[in-house]
Amino acid sequence: MKPVIIQPPQVDWFTGAFAHGATLRKSTRIADLAGIFADTAAWHRTDPDFAVYDVEMLESPTGEGELYTGVTHLQPGKIGDEFFMTRGHFHARREQGEVYYGLRGTGLLLLQPEHGRAYLQTVTAGSVHIIPGFTAHRLINTGSEVLSALAVWPTIAGHDYTALASGFSVRVTEANRQILVREVQNG
Ligand SMILES: [Fe+2]
């Protein structure tokens, strides 16, 4: 019998758009990000329906050994002087890692180990980020264009947002047109 040749899904490396595959899409709006930004008054003044980021994922089988593939599109902008960012998370299965690939825009990937100091990596088109297990991760858009990053992670990893109730220990703001990265006590 002749082997079957299947057209796989495709991703546009410049925009992160998927083609030839079934996808799921989720938007995260300003209203969904209560308590994430330091300047609560500025957050209240911002349109609650504005979509800060969208995640588009390929539909995948779930279960041990399966992988999800998704692209995050994070808008440029700020709440007060703090750059737009994703909520960020630990994996529910803490030991599970993930890989991010920068596609477009400029930003930072904030990595916060469960035990240890937070650190950042620059995200640009072509950057590769190996996120180890036991490490929370968040994207921050420090540029003026959409920041898009492709991610691949185990379907069993899951998300745990509650463990970060006190927030990440780094905030990234703009001051005098400079990007300011500072450590904070309680997120
Ligand atoms: Fe993740």
TrEMBL record:
Glucose-6-phosphate isomerase prokaryote domain location: 29-183
E.C. code: 5.3.1.9
A Pfam family: GPI
Signal peptide span: none
Catalytic activity annotation: alpha-D-glucose 6-phosphate = beta-D-fructose 6-phosphate
Molecular function GO terms recorded: isomerase activity
Keyword field: Gluconeogenesis, Glycolysis, Isomerase, Metal-binding
Pathway assignment: Carbohydrate degradation; glycolysis; D-glyceraldehyde 3-phosphate and glycerone phosphate from D-glucose: step 2/4
Family from the record: Belongs to the archaeal-type GPI family.
Protein name: glucose-6-phosphate isomerase
